[in-house]
Amino acid sequence: MTQYRLSIGTYIQRNSFLHRLDPRTKWIITLLLAVDLYRVKSFPSLVPVAFMIILGIILAQTRMHEVWNALRPIFPLMILLAVIHICFDQGHAIYIAGPIQVTREGLYTAGLTSLQFALLFLAAALLGWTTVPTELANGLERMFAPLKRFGIPVHAIAMTIALAYRFFPILMREWQRIKLAQMARGANLEHGSFIRRTRHLASLVIPLLIHTFERAEELSIAMDARAYRGDIGRTQYYRRSLRRMDVISLIVSLILSVSLFWFHKM
User: Which residues cross the membrane (predicted)?
Assistant: First the structure.
């Protein structure tokens, strides 16, 4: 198993509680978790949200080593966020080195922000791990179907989000393939100074961008060849309906979200 075995947009076929939930339910719960994470300003208020996400991982029957493999690619971003807060946040200084001033508030915010980012990634990843991409698009489209009356292209927006979700693991695998190819040609991407390794990123980013545009063109040609015209005349083979466990899950998530809102107001 590679480090990109599990990522955002990768569906894992299992018979778990989350897999059986309606896609609309999972979309709403994920959005509520994202809003709750955005409002978090302290570690105590982060605990309930973290508990919900960890509970979701357990209910989805996701193994811990799979979660670890999924988190590994975002560690550089987490470290970058932490460094920015540590070096530039104002407050009570505990270490000064020239223009860089490390503060207590910066350390606190760095830890909190890194955890928020990791939990947000896991919440989004859970949505993809437990839902087929086509169901993601159908669920989002049915959830915002009333907006069609105002001329909003709901189907096009839902399809765009679903395609972006689906292409994420493909791009991650392509990034790894290009990286191994460049290293086989002698590129030193894992050793040397930070500046030297940053310069070598161009040999990865440019081929990845070219591959992305090629994929997009191939997809558009395939959709035109199949006479795809959006939602005009299209029907769904399966039409899901909200069941008791969907309603209970939504009620519990809404109660948690409202409780956190009042906790922040106190």
Answer: 43-62, 74-95, 107-130, 150-168, 247-264
